[in-house]
């Protein structure tokens, strides 16, 4: 009977020993787990700090990038402004250069024009009519819209008239009447045109000449040309009357 209790006691004692050993192992595992959890939390905290620092650095970098982009934009704007200003200066300089060139060309052209005309006028005044005709004809061909184009036609006609080339003279007087109707001495041109026609001894031209003489007395009644036109008309009447008397 005693042996039986002893066996039960030993079994119970060994069972308690096993349970206590398991508890020690379990406690050790729990301690390790707590240590790991602590380490993990610490690492997590460190990681969180690093993430925060990284975020701050990233924010700072972003702000710096924005500032840099702003500065770059300002610099680009300044460069664009400088380029625009430079282009304007270049264009202005080019325009000024072109204007100076155009001005010089115009001045040279004007000098050539006036020189050509006044050379012809000087020759006319010196009664060198043939040479005057050459210079005036060249002026008319080279400078059809020249400042003295009307006078060039007039002195061309006058030179031809002085050389008794009445047909050519009448053509240039006619050109003045047709092309320059506002010519200041139109009554003079019409009178010389009529006189050129009278000198041609052509009956058809003679009748046209009389028509112009009558128009001068009507359109310019108080002018010297009207007085001369009346004298020519009176001569024509006297000549006509004389011819009738002779026929009788």
Q: How would you describe this protein?
A:
- This protein is an all-alpha fold.
- Helix 2 packs antiparallel against helix 3 and helix 5 packs antiparallel against helix 6.
- It is 89% helix and 0% strand.
- The chain is rod-shaped, with a radius of gyration of 61 Å.
- It has a domain of 141 residues: Serine Threonine Protein Phosphatase 5, Tetratricopeptide repeat (Alpha Horseshoe).
Q: Would you state the CATH class of the domain at 107-247?
A: Mainly Alpha
Distance between the termini: 211 Å
Strand fraction equals: under 5%
CA-based gyration radius: 61 Å
| Quaternary structure | single chain
Structural class assignment: mainly alpha
- Give the overall form: rod-shaped
Order of helices and strands: HHHHHHH
DSSP helix fraction: over 70%
The CATH topology assignment of the domain at 107-247 is Serine Threonine Protein Phosphatase 5, Tetratricopeptide repeat
Care to count the β-strands?
0
Low-confidence stretches: 9-13
CATH superfamily of the domain at 107-247: Tetratricopeptide repeat domain
CATH architecture of the domain at 107-247: Alpha Horseshoe
Q: Whole-number average pLDDT?
A: 77
Largest sheet: none
Supply the number of helical segments: 7
